[in-house]
Design goal:
235 residues, mainly alpha, 8 helices
C-alpha cells in the first residue's frame, strides 16, 4: 500500500465495521427522533425542513447532540477509510478524504447554528455538510477505481443520484416559492409560512438528499469487508 499521511486510528477490522455502521445510523436516529418529537409538538406546518426541528425543547437537544456526535464519528470514519482501503489514485484519495473531514466538521457546526437565530451560517454549514459529503463519496469512488466493490459502487451511484435529484427539487421549489416574498421584517418562521406552498415539495426533497448521503456513507462498508476477506485469505 502507498504510504499515507498521518497516523491511522487504533482500530481493528471489526471496530472499523462498527464505525461504518455508526457513521450513518447515529445521524439517522438523531434526525428521525428529532423530527418525530417536532411532529408531535405543534409544528409550524407539515411537511417541514429537517432544520426546523432545531427549535427550543427536547428536539433541540436531540438534534444538536446527535449531529455533533455524528460529525465526530464521520471524521473518524473518513480517516479510518483513508488508512485502510487500497486505491488506484492516491492523490485523489487524499483530496477526497479532506472533503470528507471538512463535510464532517460542518455536520458538527450545522447542529449548533440553528436556522432561527443563525440563518446564514446555518445555510452555509448545511450546504458544506451535505454537499461536501456527496463530493467526498463521489471522489472516493473514483479514487478507489478497480479496488471498489460492485455493491459499494452501486450504492454510491444510487446515493449520489438520490442526493442530486433531492437537491435540484429542493432548491428549485423553494426558490420559486420564495421569489415573490418580501422578507423585510419577517421572522424565519413567518417567512417559512409564506413559502410553505414550495416547502411542501422542498422538504421531502431534502429528506431524499439526506437519505442519499446516508446511503453513500453505508456503501463503504462493503470495501471494508473486502479488505477483511483479503486479509483472511492471505493468512
Amino acid at each position: 500500500m502507498h504510504p499515507r499521511y498521518g497516523r491511522r486510528l487504533p482500530l481493528n477490522q471489526e471496530q472499523g465495521l462498527r464505525l461504518s455502521l455508526l457513521s450513518w445510523t447515529i445521524p439517522s436516529i438523531a434526525v428521525l427522533l428529532a423530527m418525530a418529537i417536532h411532529f408531535f409538538d405543534s409544528p409550524r406546518a407539515v411537511p417541514f425542513f429537517i432544520s426546523e426541528t432545531d427549535a427550543p425543547g427536547l428536539q433541540d437537544h436531540v438534534f444538536t447532540v446527535g449531529l455533533s456526535i455524528a460529525g465526530v464519528v464521520q471524521m473518524a470514519y473518513a480517516w479510518h477509510l483513508y488508512h485502510t482501503l487500497n486505491v488506484e489514485r492516491e492523490t485523489l484519495w487524499f483530496v477526497a478524504t479532506l472533503c470528507g473531514l471538512f463535510a464532517s466538521a460542518n455536520t458538527v457546526l450545522v447542529s449548533h447554528f440553528d436556522m432561527y437565530n443563525h440563518i446564514n451560517p446555518h445555510i452555509a454549514t448545511a450546504m458544506f455538510a451535505f454537499g461536501g459529503g456527496i463530493v467526498w463519496a463521489y471522489l472516493s469512488s473514483r479514487a478507489l477505481g478497480l479496488h471498489a466493490t460492485r455493491t459499494g459502487t452501486a450504492l454510491r451511484r444510487l446515493g449520489c443520484l438520490l442526493a442530486l435529484v433531492g437537491f435540484v427539487v429542493m432548491v428549485t421549489s423553494f426558490e420559486l416559492a420564495a421569489r415573490g416574498i418580501d422578507s423585510t421584517n419577517l421572522t424565519t418562521e413567518a417567512f417559512l409560512n409564506e413559502a410553505q406552498h414550495g416547502i411542501r415539495f422542498a422538504a421531502p426533497a431534502e429528506y431524499l438528499l439526506v437519505a442519499g448521503l446516508f446511503v453513500c456513507l453505508a456503501s463503504f462498508r462493503f470495501e471494508l469487508i473486502s479488505v477483511k476477506d483479503e486479509a483472511s485469505t492471505d493468512q
